[in-house]
Amino acid sequence: MIVNKIRKIQDILLSITALLYLLITFIIWDVNYSGLSNINANVYNLFTYVIITVLLININRINFRVFIKDSLIFIIIIFLLIINSYFIPYGDRSRDYVLNFIPVFLLVILLYRKTFNLVIKYGFIILLGLFSLYNLLGILGAFFKFQSFFGLIPNELIDNYRYSSILRNPNALGEFAYIAFLIITFFTLLNTETKKRIVYLILYILTGFALIVSGSRNAIMMVGIIYIVILLYLHYLDDFLRKLIKYISISGLSLITLAFIFKGEFIINLLRLNQGLTGRDEIWTFLIHEIKKNFIFGIGYNFSPIFIADTKRFDVSSSHNMYLGLLLEMGIVAFLCLIAWIVYMIIKNHKYIKLNTSERKYLIIYNCFYISFFIGQFFEFSFFKISAINTFTFMIIALNYVSFNNIVKTKKEKIKVAHMITGLSNGGAESMLFKILKYTDKNKFDLVVISMSDKGYYGDKIKQLGIPVVELNLKKPQFLIINLFRLLRSLKGTDVLQTWLYHANFFGLILGKLLGVKNIIWGIRQSNVDEENNKKLTVKIAKLSAKFSKYVTHILSCSDEATKVHIALGYDKSKFRTIYNGFELDKYYFDEGTNAELKEELSLNDEIIISNVARYDIQKDHNTLLKAINIIYNEYNIKNIKLLLCGLNIDESNKALCELIKENMLDDCVKLLGVRSDINKIMSASDIFVLSSLGEGFPNVLGEAMACNTPSVVTDVGDCKAIVGDCGIVVDKQNPKQLADAIRTLIDLPKQELVQLGNKARERILLNYDIKNITKQYETLYGD
């Protein structure tokens, strides 16, 4: 009880200090009120002592080992700057700055490490409220030409037309508007509710006007860079944002182009594009000259403003370039350490963004800030200085480190599963792998995919899920060494190696055993391993694998028939586990609205539409299908039918297929559609689906057709009979007459009965083959 009360008091003190410090920082340094200017240093020092006190009260909850590891770069910089101070004039004063200022930055990191959730939940909202007030007052002050605010704070005119608003100068208004834009973007990524996004849109508009009023070219540029970074990570955003950003990009670019065409001079003056570098080039030339003379040790930390002012050559004391300023102050070694750290943080964020982690949206915002801010520092000098935006920067650093540690902690608790497959083309096994990856719980499993060939059809889709894809390209021996290195690196720490299809099974077993992977799961998906219907090498590997099957943990079969066939080949019966294929029922469903679209696209009228979706392969037996359609079309004289063929190599370039169509006199009846990404549309528009295969395990396409309420005729291969049940017709393989008669039976059914049969088919899939339930079975297998 007492412990809980103490912890509650500790939390309250941390919360109050963190939020107040964040708020006070953005008030005392930049609000143009003499009363604040007179006490800002005292307030800053007071809060430094408060932070120290609060952190000491919470010392039992601080992991100093992790904090020191994460802050090591800054500790090294402190050490280097202290060494430098012994080789420069006024070294004592430089050491005082180093030991007084940089430790405060570390205190800020420590404070906000302990208040991560608080800052995310409340801190950003408080700042956004404050910045929105600044923005609103800045806009009103510029529009109405106020001389002062609240009778206390002057609204001073700068550069003949720019007003400083409630802040010291217009650049501060632009700087704070930039941070407001970043925070609004953060909330927009996190919250998908339409009402909230409308509020954010209003705040975007307010912020945009504030940026224009500020006339801060640097702030406007940094906001533009945030937008560009978001575009780079566009495929990680939700569909609504992707569409909205694309629309804004096109319309915004068009408006800007028109504005420059018709109001070019006005826009140039508004954005101050005609003012060049406003003296910065002269300061930079001077700094470069001085850097050459003080290249190793610098002139001393925080000395560049004094150094520039003492020359009496410039109206300002800022270097207006962080990189030149810090290089002059720090010397080359400390400066390179800092730059290396900046690059490291951006690269590490990018690496983790590609993974599907709960921290992804935070990481995107961190990189938006780093990239935009540190590019902006080519024209300003705000980092490693006592200022509001410097505090914000170190707060972001603190949050970033917490996100890193959360990811590492989560990864340690996860089961690492590597999926190895022969290729990622548009096939049944590949489709099932993609669905399993999509619905696997990313909080419990760390996933990677290894393709023995290239990225194929599904590679990019898998990457969009945040799952790494390693392409071995084994057919390109020139890349063998580097790809083997990538393979070994990707398999490091693997708990479960699941392989898909014969070549991957055999290769994966050898590799898994060499690397000491404890759980190796083979994937079996074929029920026909006859030499006449398969490649010779495939049959040899399938039969050879039987001798090694006792060395795997499990053999995962997608159908009862496939299990039976492989046990007959000599595979270890005790190793088999059967998990049927699953289907995305929210993706595959009857959609009446698409029928009209498809008919218009394919120039269809009121024909009976028969579909077959399969790659061109001997196993799929298009020959029998075309013979059956020939019987219906020419012998039974049913002319009002159209056969839609979809799949890999199902197009006009396939001469063998075109010849088959011609032989069966079906030129006017068949449409070759090639690979389609809208199979749901094809199935919805189809009256009958036909699967004519010689061999299958558990055909995905059959379940997809049934999920779209499409009655089916299938050959008795694999688990087709078990899948269809009483919702379709099953015939012998390689029997065109039987297949034709079954199709005709469905054609002759009254429309209402055909619809009822389709409804029954979807109910059967819903009951037995929902992908979410199937994926849970995979997850259970991984945990065995």
User: What oligomeric state best describes the polypeptide chains here?
Assistant: single chain
Strand content: 5-15%
Q: What is the structural class?
A: alpha/beta
Please work out how many helical segments DSSP would assign: 31
| Biggest beta-sheet profile | 7 strands, parallel
Share of residues in helices: 55-70%
* Average residue-wise pLDDT: 89
> Given the C-alpha coordinates, what overall shape results?
elongated
Computed over alpha carbons, the radius of gyration is 34 Å
Cα end-to-end separation: 40 Å
Main sheet strand line-up: 7-6-5-8-9-10-11
The number of E-state strands comes to 17
Uncertain residue segments: none
How would you describe this protein?
With 784 residues, the chain is α/β, with parallel strands linked by helices. It contains 31 helices and 17 strands. The strands form 4 sheets. A 7-stranded parallel β-sheet has the order 7-6-5-8-9-10-11, sandwiched between helices. It has a 6-stranded parallel β-sheet with strand order 14-13-12-15-16-17, with helices on both faces. A two-stranded antiparallel sheet has the order 1-2. Strand 12 (608-613), helix 24 (622-635) and strand 13 (641-646) form a beta-alpha-beta unit. Helix 11 (280-293) runs parallel beside helix 13. The longest helix has 32 residues, at 239-270.
